[in-house]
Amino acid sequence: MESRKNDQDIFMKQLILLPALLFVLGQTHAQTTQGNDTTTGRVYSKRQYADSSFAGTRLVNFHTIQMHKKGTLKLHIAHRFGELKSGQENLWGIDGPANIRIGFDYSLMDDLTLGIGRSANKKIVDGFAKYRFLRQSAQGSPLSMAFVGSMNVQTDKDPNKGTADAKYPYTESRFSYMAQLIMARKFSKRFSFQAAPTFIHYNLVQKLSDKNDMFFVPVMARFKFTKWLAITGEYGFKTFQYQRDMSELHDSFSLGFDMETGGHVFQIFCTNSYGINEVQALPYTTGNWGKGQVRIGFNVSRVF
User: Fold this and answer.
1) 3-state DSSP helix/strand/coil % of the chain, to nearest 5
2) Superfamily for domain range 2-303
3) 3-state class of 67 per DSSP?
4) Is it the case that residue 122 has pLDDT exceeding 60?
5) Are 113 and 146 in contact (CB under 8 A)?
């Protein structure tokens, strides 16, 4: 009990320090854009919002602060190949096993998006809502902030349904949930950074000794080195031990490139995560970069 309390104390300190750090850093870079009113001759301040902090609404596996304008429909396809270390016989993972997610997002407002998607792994259907309640601006806030909430249901077939060995003894056993606070700062035209304290709850965990509630702090960054090309990275920090044996679980870590081509965003990367969204990748990534257990993946999105 004492160990669990210490873990929770550490997590609460992280929640407090992360936004404070980003705020202080942002204040040192905040600027006010001024101009002249040609009618009255008075000096005025014009609020300019930071935009395009990231190329897409997701970086690799996780949500970004980015939003689309009201009325925008986006098709998002995410694909993960097999592990590179599977060798030539498996064409270094191209032959699989692969995981794919296809999703649609719709922007009800500039700051409110609803989305739904389906992943091949465990046939997970997910729905989410993302609301941006604060925007970084030259005259106002040094940060952009958003809330993301999602519900996920595993729809794979239970071969032992109706027996004592059922994988999902109750319908609610298939559900998991996520709540996330995104805090982002666009430091310059080239560099953006984001941190997102995340709470995940599984109604049914793998073992009786596992905890149903889990906390993570994923971070991500993008650096643009040309108008259309950027290098990206994301990392999902675990904050406490939620399984008795964590030796086979690793932090989700991805490195890649973003390419923007008109209405398309193409992202290619290497990742140690087979799962695609937060409830899969953050708690249950088993790939180890140190052992070469990484896979090539790509995301393609098209807005309408």
Assistant:
1) 15, 45, 40
2) monomeric porin ompg (2.40.160.40)
3) coil
4) yes
5) no
pTM for this prediction: 0.83
Angstrom distance (rounded) from CA 51 to CA 185: 10
DSSP 173: G
Sequence-separated (6 or more) residues with CB below 8 Å from residue 164: none
Read off the pLDDT of residues 251-270 as tens digits, 9 standing for 90 and up: 999 999 999 887 788 999 99
Take residue 112 and report the two structure tokens written for it. 């409110």
What is the distance, to the nearest Å, from the Cα of residue 57 to the centroid of all Cα atoms in its chain? Answer: 9
**Count of CB atoms within 10 A of residue 295's CB?**
27
State residue 278's pLDDT score.
Answer: 95
Separation of alpha carbons 173 and 169, rounded Å: 7
Q: How many helices (H) and strands (E) does the chain have?
A: 2, 15
Residues 78-97 have pLDDT tens digits of 999 999 888 778 887 888 78
